[in-house]
Write a structure and sequence with these properties.
Length: 344
């Protein structure tokens, strides 16, 4: 398993990172979830990503239980805050000082640790002044509850604003966590160049496009039983954008590229995102240990130029590249109407 530095920092993370969104605490039984975590450790993965809102805090609990007994210093544990947790009260979401301070304590308790290696703003908060958020993050760093700070799905301009305050507060702002895959390349035009300028890496989620790039979906009318496209707990909704016959037909063409490289289609998809040097890690999820083993084998794979060109040719115009899509990821239901705050 290869490691990469996270942003312009001394922290190294495994370039294949285990994430438990849409699995632990919801789609996968706890015994299977623990088996997947053990499989990740066995193949050399030491970096684990979660969030307080995954399965409404249950995912953090499952991950903490699965990692119990593992030397803490040998792990990199990442979590996030922003989305509603608990009963969804007035201050149970967002990036206010109150919510951040309460959220980190809950996350540490559930994860069974005194600190997280990376604490991330799960989205941009239009209702809370950025200064309030960044000062709260700075206090967490200085208290030792978080070692580094990151964000998820921030635009290039938002990253610049956050980085400016982080420099002023002298805290390590090192990462962004966007969606990125051979089908979804919206970060390439603006977010990646800004991140390189700012010393920020990407920890990318959904490198296999919610499973579409594995090639298992051949028709939108015939999803395999038990697959994400048939899941009623959020999976089907997330994958819906790719469940079009034109997309699925194009994806099938990648099978030949994978075969020529002696890779599975999932390995090809994960290796593809890792060819981008601004990507520090690709997040993988799993419902079975063997999926972890298969996906981890993408670590260290170098795709030759002709293979990269063949991937582009195969996918053609079904690739989404519009950089404006990033700004749509942060909910606007928290926009203020009292004249304060920021506007989307």
């Amino acid at each position: 398993m290869k490691y990469r530095y996270l942003g312009n920092s001394g922290l190294r993370v495994t370039e294949i990172t285990y994430g438990n969104w849409l699995t632990h605490g919801s789609q996968v039984e706890n015994d299977s979830a623990r088996a997947c975590v053990r499989a990740a450790l066995d193949v050399g993965i030491t970096t684990f990503d979660t969030a307080d809102m995954y399965a409404n805090t249950a995912a953090e609990t499952v991950l903490g239980e699965a990692l119990k007994g593992v030397r803490r210093e040998s792990l990199e544990i990442l979590t996030k805050t922003y989305f509603p947790v608990g009963p969804g009260g007035a201050n149970d979401s967002g990036l206010s000082r109150k919510h951040i301070m309460e959220s980190i304590d809950g996350s540490l308790r559930r994860l069974g640790t005194d600190y997280v290696d990376l604490y991330q703003a799960h989205r941009w908060d239009y209702a809370t002044p950025l200064e309030e958020t960044m000062v709260a993050f700075a206090d967490l760093v200085r208290s030792g509850k978080a070692l580094y700070i990151g964000v998820s799905e921030w635009t290039a301009d938002q990253l610049r604003q956050g980085a400016a305050l982080a420099r002023e507060l002298r805290i390590p702002f090192v990462s962004n966590q966007p969606q990125y895959s051979a089908l979804w390349r919206v970060i390439e035009a603006d977010v990646v160049p800004a991140s390189r300028e700012l010393g920020i890496s990407q920890i990318v989620w959904s490198p296999v496009a919610q499973g579409v790039l594995t090639g298992k979906y051949r028709s939108r009318h015939a999803a395999p039983t038990g697959s994400r496209a048939t899941d009623g707990n959020g999976g089907a909704e997330m994958i819906e954008r790719w469940m079009r016959d034109d997309v699925l037909d194009r994806v099938q063409r990648l099978g030949r590229v994978a075969d020529e490289l002696d890779l599975t289609m999932a390995q090809l998809a994960i290796a593809w995102v890792l060819q981008n040097q601004n990507v520090a890690a690709a997040l993988i999820g799993a419902s079975r240990p063997e999926q972890v083993v298969e996906n981890a084998a993408a670590s260290g794979v170098v795709l030759p130029p002709d293979a990269l060109a063949a991937i582009d040719d195969a996918l053609g115009d079904v690739v989404e590249r519009d950089p404006a899509k990033t700004s749509l990821e942060s909910p606007v239901d928290r926009v203020r109407t009292d004249g304060w705050g920021t506007t989307p």
